[in-house]
Write a structure and sequence with these properties.
By secondary structure, the chain is an alpha+beta fold. Helix content is 63%, strand content 10%. A hairpin with a 2-residue loop joins strand 2 and strand 3. It comes from Stutzerimonas kirkiae.
């Protein structure tokens, strides 16, 4: 059974971008495991494409009304024109009032509205065209064109980077709308034609789902390459500042704690000088893995540059942060090429306790305390004590 699952996973991975890692395949199924940066960039892309789609519909929807005027009689044309006007106004509102803010809830709302507007228009127009209308010739041909709107919408899903779950939900809504339109015209429904159209719509849903998932796979690979440090595999400085800004905004909005720890590996330059850069890279990767193995799931570890790391600890006060750091360091940071243990100098700062006005000030404070730990003898932790001010604590003999 395990071999069959592995074989299936391997074949699925071969259909996707070669840069996508096997552990990332689960992210194609549901957005639950997506990183903050991926959520933010995907939300921005979705909202921008929603606005592009809304602009096209806002322009094309009223223009098609001129064709209705030419081929339909007055009562029917007026009903369709009213529906078109309402749909056009809704698209304009969607275009004007939605802006990309990197929030997935906003993205979900925007894409829901985008597809709800033409879906409601389709149901209304389908009802108007089926209410005792006896259309022939050119008017019948134009009326048939209205039946293709669900197909256009379903194909439009292909421009969005969506997970399997999201694609199924949106496709199901369009299929239900098609079924509802058939139910409302039950008495005059042409069953063979309706069944063929419904089956074709389901096939298009499958193709667009594959296109959306493929887009998401490329996006996951590209975001990982853009935000990850190529040597250690952890987040890079550029993406780290973005995450820190998001965590700061969340902490300020909820009035919760946020701790930062600047970690600088001691005497790391001597490893490169004595043993070569390859040995230094191995020691850096080993140290990174030791830290990752002992972090909480909510913490974020970034490579700030060289042998410097930044640890972001949301919902963590100063005391909890000190305990977390001591627990992390008690497991060790790996070894130097000569077998000696790697040590670090650490500066710790916390949003509420230190009263920082923005994350730049918090970052600068943690950085300054890290340099105090280095100048104080290394293998030290520097933080703000409530009674004694900034103080150093030797990491060689952690307090009970």
């Amino acid at each position: 059974m395990t071999e069959s699952c592995d074989s299936f996973t391997h074949r699925l991975a071969s259909l996707l971008p070669s840069e996508l890692e096997r552990t990332e395949l689960i992210q194609l199924l549901s957005p639950r495991g997506h990183s903050l940066i991926l959520k933010r960039r995907r939300a921005t892309l979705i909202v921008n494409r929603v606005r592009m789609f809304a602009f096209l519909f806002a322009v094309l929807t009223p223009l098609w009304g001129l064709i209705d005027l030419a081929v339909f009689s007055y009562p029917l044309w007026m009903g369709l024109a009213t529906c078109r006007l309402l749909a056009c106004l809704a698209f304009i509102c969607l275009l004007l009032f939605y802006r990309p803010r990197g929030n997935m809830l906003d993205a979900y709302r925007s894409i829901t509205l985008l597809f709800a507007i033409p879906t409601l228009f389709y149901i209304a127009s389908h009802t108007l065209l089926g209410e005792g209308q006896h259309l022939t010739g050119l008017s019948a041909m134009v009326a048939t064109g209205y039946a293709f709107l669900p197909f256009v919408l379903m194909a439009g899903l292909a421009i969005f980077p969506l997970t399997v779950k999201e694609s199924l939900i949106l496709a199901s809504v369009l299929l239900l709308a098609q079924g509802l339109a058939g139910y409302l015209n039950w008495a005059t429904l042409n069953w063979p034609s309706f069944a063929g159209g419904f089956w074709l719509l389901a096939l298009i849903a499958g193709v667009t789902a594959l296109a959306s998932i493929s887009q998401l796979a490329f996006m996951i690979a590209l975001v990982r390459q853009a935000v990850r440090d190529p040597l250690t595999g952890i987040l890079s400085r550029g993406s780290g500042e973005e995450i820190l800004g998001l965590q700061w905004s969340t902490a300020r909005r909820r009035n919760t704690c946020l701790s930062l720890a600047f970690i600088d590996l001691d005497h790391f330059k001597t490893i490169n000088d004595r043993f070569g850069h390859e040995a230094g890279d191995r020691a850096l990767c080993e140290s990174t893995q030791h830290m990752l193995d002992n972090l909480r799931g909510s913490d974020s570890l970034l490579r700030w540059g060289g042998e410097e790391f930044l640890l972001i600890m949301p919902d963590t006060d100063l005391q909890q942060a000190r305990q977390a750091l001591q627990r992390l360091l008690s497991k060790g940071l790996g070894h130097r090429p000569d077998g000696q243990p790697l040590t670090a100098s650490i500066g710790l700062a916390e949003r509420c306790f230190d009263g920082c006005g923005d994350y730049h000030a918090l970052l600068e404070l943690a950085d300054r305390r890290m340099y105090m730990a280095k100048s104080g003898g290394r293998n030290q932790l520097c933080w703000q004590d409530e009674r004694e001010g900034e103080r150093l604590f030797s990491l060689s003999h952690p307090r009970p």
